[in-house]
Amino acid sequence: MHTSDSTQDASNTPVAVSSAPETAGEISEPEIFENAYQVSIDYVDKHKILEIFQEITEKLVYHKPDDPLQFILLEVQSMIDARQAETETISEENKDV
Asked: What are the Polar residues biased-composition ranges (predicted)?
């Protein structure tokens, strides 16, 4: 697969064009890549990455631990545990319905 300069949309996002001949059962439309910057922004928003880092950073500068990496690791693990507990609670509530 190669990227053709002649097959770009208005945002200059390259469109992948297959150079291999089509065979039975393959999709004939070219694969279009989304704007990488927007995909990144969407990911950060969807998973609340900035909020996670902000919360950890606030706690880090407040507590000023001697081992910041260990502190960060424990905070992340605490967030994971809280998310799992919330998921289990929701799952249990749905079983009762």
From this structure: 1-16
Angle at 92 between CA 88 and CA 95, to 5 degrees: 140
pLDDT per residue as tens digits for the range 16-31 = 444 455 556 666 676 5
DSSP state at residue 31: P
This prediction has a pTM of 0.58
Cα dihedral 21/24/29/32 (nearest 10): -80
Contact criterion met (CB below 8 Å) for 17 and 1: yes
Query: Alpha-carbon distance 44 to 51, whole Å?
Result: 9
Distance of CA 38 to the CA centre of its chain: 11
